[in-house]
Design a protein that fits this description.
Layout lengths: L2 H10 L3 E2 L5 E2 L4 E9 L2 E14 L2 E6 L4 E5 L3 E8 L14
Antiparallel strand pairs: 1-2, 2-4, 3-4, 3-7, 4-5, 5-6
Length: 95
């Protein structure tokens, strides 16, 4: 994933950046990150905030877990929950 694609996904999700650099999603909104490396895939679900620096993507879940992924290994982001006019998760991926 590129920084531009991550930025587009966060703008679509209406994320706001806090003083510590975490892009936090609005209440009721979550995202799922899809990553793969050497043929092994990993969905990282129920993410409420992300931070990106130095080729790494840190993701904080609604349970307080923190995941650290290589940004280059993330290939898609799915947005869950309501946004402006959104009623349910749409089929497919953003990215």
């Amino acid at each position: 994933m590129t920084d531009d694609l991550l930025k587009a996904a966060l703008e679509t999700a209406e994320a706001k950046t806090d003083k510590d650099g975490w892009a936090e999603l609005p209440e009721g909104r979550m995202l799922t990150l899809y990553a793969a490396h050497d043929g092994v895939s990993l969905p990282v679900t129920k993410i409420e905030a992300v931070s990106s620096a130095g080729g790494l993507l840190k993701a904080r879940s609604t349970k307080g877990e923190t995941f650290v992924l290589a940004l280059k290994d993330v290939f898609a982001i799915a947005l869950d929950g309501g946004g402006k006019g959104a009623q349910a998760r749409k089929a497919g991926f953003l990215g």
